[in-house]
What does this fold into?
Amino acid sequence: MRKITRAAAALALAVGATTMVTATSANAAPAEGTVHGCQAGAFCIYPQDAGWNNDRPSHQFFSYGAHNLSNQVGNHMIFNNQTGGAWARTCTGYNGTGDCQGWMAAGQYFVKDLTPINSVLLIRQ
It folds into this structure.
C-alpha cells in the first residue's frame, strides 16, 4: 500500500510540475505585450492591403509627438499598442498638423486609407 501511495504522490507532483511549466510558457507572450508583432508601447502600421502581415509591421513608433509618413498609400492596418493612457491620431499634414482625425485608444486597430495621411500624432492624456 505504501508503494502505491508513494507512486501516486510522485505522479501528482510530476503532473503539477508539468502544469506549472505549461502555464508559465502560455503567459510569457502576453506579459511581454507584443501583439501581432507590435511591441508594447508602440503604434504600428502594417503594409498596404496585407492585414496583419504575418505579425510583421512595416512601421513602429514609440515616442510621443508627431511622426511623418512617406509613401504610405491605400489601405493599411493600423494598431495602437501604446501603454500608459496614450492615444493616437492620424493627420493630413506633416508634423501632426492639418486635419487630425479620430482618437485611437490603446488596443484599438483599424484598416485605414493612408493616402491623405502625412503624419501620426501620439499623445499621452
Observations:
- Residues 2-32 form the longest helix (31 residues).
- The beta strands are 42-45, 59-61, 65-68, 75-81, 86-91, 100-104, 109-113, 119-124.
- The first strand starts at residue 42 and ends at 45.
- The mean pLDDT is 81.
